[in-house]
User: Fold these one by one.
Assistant:
Number 1:
Amino acid sequence: MVDQSNLTKGISLIIVSYCGVKRLEKCLESVMSQTIAANLVEVIIVINGRDDGSIRLIQELTHKLANFEIKMLYTPEKGVANARNLGIAQARREFTVFLDDDDVISPNYLAGLFKYADLESLTLCQLKNISSPTALAEVSSCLHQTSNSVCLNWLFAVVTVMRVMTMNACKIVPTKYLREFKFDVNLKSSEDMVLFSALYISRRLSLKVVPRHEQACYYRLARQDSLSRQTISYDFNIRQRLAVISGILRSIDDRSKLAHPVKFGFFLSRVLGEVMYSVRILVNNINYWLRRCFIRS
């Protein structure tokens, strides 16, 4: 059993950054604007790999975050999984929230998540894709109704929540579970999907969604060519996808849980998800190069 005696009320906000000096300021500005009581939050910033000036930038901005407890960590080792694990090891609040250095959050993000969080749930909120940190209302939320059909809306909600709950974004997680299920540093991709899949299968956790009227939203930077930049290769499309599936199985501490129909169905959905993810990368690359060919011609 994980020791919880040193966990206190509130949120550990973990921000991991690699060469993020050009991105961090917007990210931290959104943290500064949070409506939650400052004494409920500790901000843990983990700089990994080569320092491109991020440490100095954070030191210059620290006075603006003076109301929050700030911890800054540095590791020369590259890798988001290792950096997140370092952040988790320093977390001293009951709940943990992750924020990528190129993303931003709405003012009521932390307050909304904390209001509905409990120690036996994964609590999700709205997620919106944006093209830049200054464009905060471009795309409708990922958690919304799509038709007047109750059945279709239910199916959409299930599929969407299952997809979103395996991301680091837009959720609050009981820290005690993150101390048990660490990010796999050996994976080259989808380490967040592995962790949250193993956690959901291994533990009796409920899923909750913060109501939209709370205006708790995670704005994720979605570059139009991000998928097409991923190189099609045997390593990425085959080997890494198999490594992710194997990683889920390896991380489940009691595989008898897979005998439960819902848990097994969720695992199968993740396997199918990896296959479809690989196909999506392939299709995006084909479309990307076709567009380039037509533009040149």
Note: The chain has a mean pLDDT of 85.
Number 2:
Amino acid sequence: MKVKSILVSQPKPEAEKSPYFDLAKKYNLKIDFRPFIQVEAISAKEFRQTRISIPDHTAVIFTSRTAIDHFFRIANELRVTIPNTMKYFCVSESTAFYLQKYIVYRKRKIFYGNRRFEELMDIINKHEGEKFLLPVSDIHKQEATTLLEKNNINFSKAVLYRTVSSDLSDLSNVDYDILVFFSPSGIKSLSQNFPNFKQNDTVIASFGPTTAQAVADEGFRLDISAPMPKAPSMTMALEQFIKKANKAAKK
């Protein structure tokens, strides 16, 4: 089967240059982008029911830009003034810089790691006297909470937003050669939006072990898995598969 079309279950890249655009041009592919999941805010009323008080904390841990947006959103809705003494611990430098949207960056105590939570943990351990707040989605990786608990860090986990399936009713079907997924929630959305979906010759690609497991749990066949030693990115994994498939189709 020659690969002609791909549906990526994420928003279309905003930058003019993207490995996906290069892939489409190189192999004359139709690549569409459509988020299969979306973020839904937890209301101020719901948050109050958790009895978590933001002012009781002296530091916040951010693992994503979405977490930053919803932390300041809920603070605004609750009319909570974030003190200038609040410390911010971010999983990466780019996440830390995103704080400039809400605070005067140079006047705050901001710390960041190098994309891996284990590295941020080394910094957090040097501030063990703080009381940390960890904003998360209802569906989140357990790595952060596991490491914080293992290191006896005083923290509260605050669910500020939830991940839900997007409404894809405007799509009559998902008739593409390859479907690309990046989270278990995306796989769940596929099943919810298209309950009669039969995989047949459709190739399913997934990124990360939890997404791969979700593919199996839903009873689908996993054809492309990333990251792999020879394909650390999804686009590299896709290209390797396309090369092989298109070569076989010519025979």
Note: The first helix runs from residue 19 to 27.
Number 3:
Amino acid sequence: MLKFVKNHMDSIAGIEIYPVISLLIFFTFFVLLFWWVFTAKKEYIKQMSNIPLDNQNETTL
């Protein structure tokens, strides 16, 4: 199966740029995510982490 896909992909001109583009997109995403995590306010993180434990807004069926 891999031989078929590899041989088919080799016949497409200019396809070698797509893995580089996808690597750059994912790398940029995770760098921005780490930047957000380290610069986020601690109060916001604490408030968001307590949302699942907050029973005051729960509705009963």
Note: Residues 17-52 form one domain.
